[in-house]
Amino acid sequence: MCGILGVVATTPVNQLLYDGLQVLQHRGQDAAGIVTAEGGRFHMHKGPGLVRDVFRTRNMRELLGNWGIGHCRYPTAGSAYNAAEAQPFYVNSPFGLMLAHNGNLTNADELKHDMFLQDLRHMNTNSDSEVLLNVFAHELQVASQNRYQVDPETIFKAVAGVHRRVCGAYAVIAMIAGYGLVAFRDPYGIRPLVIGRNDTPAGTEYLVASESVAIDTLGFKMLRDVEPGEAVLIDVHGRFQSRQCAERTVHAPCMFEYVYLARPDSLMDGISVYEARVKMGEFLADKIRRTMPHLEIDAVIPIPDSSRHAAMELSAHLNKPYREGFVKNRYIGRTFIMPGQGTRRKSVRQKLNAIAQEFRGKNVLLVDDSIVRGTTSREIITMAREAGARKVYFASASPPVRFANVYGIDMPSRGELIAAFRSDDEIRREIGADALIYQDLDALRAALRAVNPSVTQFETSCFDGHYVTGDVTQAYLEAIERARGRASKSGSDDEGGQLDLQLVA
To answer: Is 2 one of the annotated active-site residues of the chain?
Structure first.
């Protein structure tokens, strides 16, 4: 789950990219990078940390040009920051390419092997984004028939070649030196990608981003989503073209985007994240009324922030008081993203503090968007009891997370998931709740379809173990389990550092 952004404008684009990454910061807090283009020269700066910490005035001044891409990184395998893996990535052959990627390739190892032996390309990092960049570069070279001339037909053929070779989830924005920006999405549309447009006296500007919130805040108008398997091409003069490049497509956006990852003010695949979360609260209230009518609830309290809208709707449907019982320190990162159980456990206490008056002597229903590892839930329930709660009930707006996610969310190891091998009652005892209520998967599907009935299928592998791409085997899952185990034992000694480049293609 990373944030990606690309802009072709009529004026200098560095501030637009910076502001866009700021509103996509929730999608990745590990590292950030921006590349702009001026003629045939790329200007790049990237480094570890939040967007506001990576870029200084001197860096921004050096990011010259009217088009570029940005990326904020979230490590999908639990790895600590490695300076070499910050994006965007660059390769100079055949045309000079920069690429930013959100997602995860499930056949990255095979692709890396093929490129080394057949395509004679070499990887400098362990990032699957670098693999994807080199596959795209090779397909461009093949599509151009080694003429080293680029045109729309060549680019669309290259994207079609990427779709044939690459498996997994990917939303991509790439720059081709001297030509323009190309954006494409995997044939299942797992990771989101949206297009915005801005008509100015100097010409039309286009913006492509992970979420529509970047389009809104930068003054663009929402045009549409990039379709699964589609490629969108915007040249340096603002000319827009698109083509379906995949032989077969299935529209199955990631369900967890709406549960947790996306901002509530975003619109993706025609689904308002805010409306979806309100509907989740409605369906969850129905289940509580149906299965646990005996619960004596004095107050419904959300775990800020992503569960707030579900909790408000739930309280209204149950006719129970809604209360804000926790104050959030907004300067602490999202605990779901932090590597290491110890770090997560410590950060929960730093991030949330209970308002004792809302707990003392009450039976409270705490509502969260999901329960992944259980660390946050356990600590929050303990905090509620310490604040004086008589009974603590816990409700999850999503179903139990029982399976690894291999499409770009940090859930690769079932051993770290509290629900993987436990019943609901065992989970309840493990987190210390007096009652535990999970949303049903069918109800979650119904909640999203109520907002946009045209989306009939979703990627739900972390809930039901069904991997929509059809290529995820038990051997693959076991391999990433072993890799995750080695990574957690070895840790990381990378100091990291910022990187400025000016590259002539």
So the answer is: yes
